[in-house]
Hints:
It is a single chain. The strands form two sheets. The chain has a four-stranded antiparallel sheet with strand order 3-4-5-6, with helices on one face. It is 36% helix and 21% strand. It has 203 residues and is α+β, with helices and mostly antiparallel strands.
Amino acid sequence: MRTILAGALGALIMAAPSTARAEAVPKLLQDWTALNGLCRGGSGDDPRTRAACDRRDAIDRRLAAAGWCYRRPGDLGAQRTWQPCGAGAAQAGTETPQGAARRALLDAARGPAEAGRGQPVQFVVHALNRDGPWAFLFARMQRPDGRSLGRAADDLASDDYAALLRQDGAGWRVVDFAVGPTDVAWEGWGRRHGAPASVFVVR
């Protein structure tokens, strides 16, 4: 991912808003990538994992303040990357079929997350996979303005969210979910619901 970022920065940095210090963005992206790996790959019970996630979230806010967005319209989670928020806006006047399909999945998955948190939720997608009528989402929950949801001492152990969805005649519906897991909460969902193992891949 570092190689991809390094190759793309030369073109993208010129599109970043003037409020950003252009020379600082590559370092922020490098730090974010390292911390994101520690956050996603660490144990939820390890304080070092939580510290890495908190530091990554702080860089999230700094990049957002500099006019960078972690998204690419129409792409699934594995294809998302940091880029200037205005990049590609000229060709994004109409929503692509891929973008509409992705939005429908996220909207369908959002209900249990918002009910569990008691507030509106926006997803930072780590994995969004589809195999036939099945789809799987693994994401970090945050407020619509990008801020952390905030947790009391007796609240959920994490801001993570996982959901298994199935498509039928009425659209997508959630068949299983986990709000705030600290482990692989979806282990066994495939056997329980008959979903293919390929849909649960999280890189």
